Amino acid sequence: MKIADYHLHSRFSLDGMQTMEEACSKAIELGVSELCFTDHLEFADNYWINYADYQRSIEKVRQKFNNQLTIKSGLEVGFDKRAQPQIETYLKDKEFDFLIGSMHRVEELDLFNGDFFKGKEIRIAIHEYFQALLERIKISDFSVLGHITLFKRFFKQLGVNVSDFVWSDYDEIIRDLLQELIMQGKGIELNMRVPLIDLDFRILRLYQELGGEIITLGSDAHHVRTMQVMKEGFEALRDSGYRYYCLFEKRKPIFVHC
């Protein structure tokens, strides 16, 4: 089975702590045969990558690891309602193999520093998050929707447990979200940065029931210490009935056995 990591950050990301060369060497050590660098494009943080420098760096590691590793060029594009015109301008006429679309803020409120959750009942906040995702995917350019269950990373700091939720309460909005992705020919990411929860499996099954096929796996690693072969992710795909997952080249999905 081919192992491909399609969510990986280098020092081209503000929070990246590994060089591209270090990441490639670690991938080979782990037995990963293909990776895609998906460094951040975050206009909300006034941060965007110098495209020429980025592509030169990717080409450099492609040449160095030519016979050992397939290396693709991508970005993780942070959804940003105010900066949508800037995002479109930046992406225009630039060549990438793959784009992850991710929600890191809702209505300018940061999920990571807790601003989005302040003064809200957590169940309502999660529904608002899914509703905002649905609105953003209708107008944004990307290949797959990243870390759909991102909010689970903040449960500990919010003082809630996975067992506090009835995930079926979100079926309707999640179904609408997945159907919109399928209609647009876009996919989903199974993000392996933190352990999977029941909701992740529920989304996998629902996506398949609706006819969804495009799915990638990503470690979301920012340091070589957190790179992995994503064994749990591949098992989750197979247990949910998937036979294939996706690689990308020039924004086109390539299906491979999982």
Most strands sheet: 7 strands, parallel
* Unreliable residue runs: none
CATH architecture: Alpha-Beta Barrel
* Outline type: globular
Question: Can you put this structure into words, describing what you see?
Answer:
- The protein has 258 residues and is α/β, with parallel strands linked by helices.
- The protein has one domain (4-257): Metal-dependent hydrolases (TIM Barrel), CATH 3.20.20.140.
- The chain contains eight helices and eleven strands.
- It has a seven-stranded parallel β-sheet with strand order 1-2-3-4-7-8-9.
- α4 (122-137) packs parallel to α6.
- The N and C termini lie close together (6 Å).
Summarize the structure.
The chain has 258 residues and is α/β, with parallel strands linked by helices. The protein is built from 8 helices and 11 strands.
Comma- or semicolon-separated keywords:
258 residues; alpha/beta; TIM Barrel; two-stranded antiparallel ribbon; 34% helix
Protein topology:
Blueprint (H helix, E strand, L loop, with lengths): L3 E5 L11 H11 L3 E8 L9 H14 L5 E9 L5 H8 L6 E5 L2 E2 L2 E2 L11 H16 L6 E2 L9 H4 L12 H14 L2 E5 L6 H12 L5 E4 L12 H9 L4 E6 L2 E6 L1
Parallel strand pairs: 1-2, 2-3, 3-4, 4-7, 7-8, 8-9
Antiparallel strand pairs: 5-6, 10-11
Helix pairs in contact: 4-6
